[in-house]
TrEMBL record:
This is LOB domain-containing protein. PROSITE patterns: LOB (PS50891). It comes from Aegilops tauschii subsp. strangulata (Goatgrass). Belongs to the LOB domain-containing protein family. Residues 58-159 form the LOB domain. InterPro entries: LOB (IPR004883). Transmembrane segments: none annotated.
Amino acid sequence: VFSFLLGIWISFARKLDRPIHRSMASSSASSFPGSVITMASSAAAVGAASSGAAGTGSPCAACKFLRRKCQPDCVFAPYFPPDNPQKFVHVHRVFGASNVTKLLNELNPYQREDAVNSLAYEADMRLRDPVYGCVGVISVLQHQLRQLQQDLTRARYELSKYQFCI
């Protein structure tokens, strides 16, 4: 799933002519508490689409932010529920509503939820760290993984010394 989302992000970044940084970050992964990103289940997304776009409930977060009427076929309604407006605000601030609309319309419906969650995470990280974004978090986690693998190798070596003594 990660490589699929990374592929979507790279193609989207190329369409926007934005650079993709792959260098090491100096920030740590633990410095990102309180993210506004939520992972909506498909049932919740369907419920949000039916309540927000039908006009019986409140409009989706995107239509509310853009100050327009939420239509029944609103592309944003299933993915930006009215109870989490910051998710759309961050995506709009980084990518723009028009670009997100184009991206969602190009994708198959079953791919859209993952794409929106990926865009929301990238937007959140891009606002926190404008240079590296989520790539900085990924590189920090990869560094920690390499360090833990080295520690595990050293511990196994030390244990192997004691096995022959018994």
